[in-house]
Write a structure and sequence with these properties.
Elements: E1 3-7, H1 13-32, H2 42-49, E2 54-61, E3 64-72, E4 79-87, H3 96-107, E5 113-119, H4 123-132, E6 136-141, E7 162-168
Parallel strand pairs: 4-5
Antiparallel strand pairs: 1-2, 2-3, 3-4, 5-7, 6-7
């Protein structure tokens, strides 16, 4: 496997958005069944892409666009956030996500802490972050412990909550 982590270009953006939406949608629907709601609306992707310090990358495996990520880097505090990470739906469990994450860590060697989150129902993601990438669960966001900036139309957690993960570097 020849893996490359490359910055997303404007030409890549439509495919990036389509593929990440499909991956999040199918992940949700694999658990809850078909839904008319959009699990990752374009406005949420754009919010990550336009955040101060954001950088977007694509994972290219053997010349094929196989996934991507959006990170938000705080150069002052070195407390960085993995906003979005995905592997193209139907190609999971081949090591692409892990290669993607290792490459991101190498790009930002001065990071002190990484933070990310994933829905409670996403057991595969929880396994990935905890057992493969050495993150630790530090918080459970739910109806009794909510986050102020969660959009009113957010349905991506299936109503079951989100785990927050941190990784001390």
């Amino acid at each position: 496997m020849i893996f490359e982590l490359l910055p997303i270009t404007e030409i890549d953006m439509p495919k990036f958005k389509k593929d990440i939406q499909e991956a999040f949608q199918k992940g949700f629907e694999d658990v809850y069944g078909k839904t008319d709601g959009t699990i990752l609306p374009e406005k949420d992707i754009d919010r990550s892409l336009n955040a101060k310090g954001s950088a977007a990358y694509k994972a290219v495996v053997d010349g094929e666009f196989m996934g991507g990520a959006v990170v938000v880097i705080d150069e002052a505090t070195k407390y960085n956030h993995l906003d979005l990470l995905y592997v193209k739906y139907g190609t999971q469990t081949k090591g692409v996500g892990f290669e993607l994450w290792k490459a991101i860590e190498k790009l930002y060697p001065d990071t002190k802490v990484w933070e990310t989150c994933t829905p409670y129902f996403e057991r595969r993601n929880i396994h990935f972050y905890v057992n493969k990438c050495d993150f630790h669960i530090v918080e459970f966001i739910n109806e009794k412990n909510s986050v102020a900036d969660t959009p009113d139309d957010f349905i991506g957690d299936g109503g079951e909550g989100m785990f927050v993960f941190k990784k001390q570097m």
